[in-house]
Amino acid sequence: MKAHELYNAVDPALVTQMLDWFRDNDRNVYKSAVATLAQTKKLRLVFVQKKPLAEQYAWVLKTLKGKAADTIGEHLLQAWFMAGNQEMLAKFCDVMGIEHDGKGSVTGDLPETIDAAKLDEAVDALVAAYDPKLVALYLYVFNLQTPGGWEALTAKLASDARLALA
């Protein structure tokens, strides 16, 4: 799935959670993302900023659902996971045996293949500790990190009912 497809499929509450996180922790990223999305629609930033917060979020989500917002949408998801969900990323990397910096940021190369048994173990651990919708979104975003995704992860996302996005 591409980023715009993820935004079309994901529970809007997760997008609200992400946007809230940026507004609370990195307001510059939120403002920059809104400005970039406004530019893609040929709007001035102030047009979006004058809306009440709930309407801003609805507008951002609607815009992220478009194919033209794929790049900014993927960057937002990556930034949110890398900065706001480090514990979950580190746990995934630990179980999968992927070298990381202790915060879930991969050091070195991503694996060429993913072991299905380790993946099952990692999904079980993550779903037990975190919101399954958040885990699913993370795994979809992780699967975007290699062209075509990893076969085992793609199959797991398609077959495991716990990994539904909405």
Describe it for me?
This protein has about 170 residues and is mostly helical. It has helices at about 5-10, 10-25, 25-40, 45-50, 55-65, 70-85, 85-95, 115-130, 130-145, 150-160. Helix 2 packs across helix 3 and helix 7 (about 85-95) packs antiparallel against helix 8 (about 115-130). The longest helix has 15 residues, at about 70-85. The protein is elongated, with a radius of gyration of 16 Å. The two termini are about 15 Å apart. The mean pLDDT is about 95.
Shape: elongated
Total helical segments? 10
Residue share in helices? 55-70%
Secondary structure tally: strands = 0
The H-and-E topology, N to C, reads as: HHHHHHHHHH
Strand-residue proportion: under 5%
Mind telling me the C-alpha Rg? 16 Å
Number of domains: 2
The biggest sheet amounts to: none
Q: Please mark out the parts with pLDDT under 50 across 5 or more consecutive residues, or reply none.
A: none
Q: How far is the first residue's CA from the last residue's CA?
A: 14 Å
- Secondary structure category: mainly alpha
Write a compact overview of the structure shown:
68% of the residues lie in helices and 0% in strands. The protein is mainly α.
Set out the fold topology.
Blueprint: H1 3-9, H2 12-25, H3 27-40, H4 45-49, H5 53-64, H6 70-84, H7 86-96, H8 116-129, H9 132-143, H10 151-159
Helix pairs in contact: 2-3, 7-8
Characteristic terms for this protein:
mainly alpha, 10 helices, 0% strand
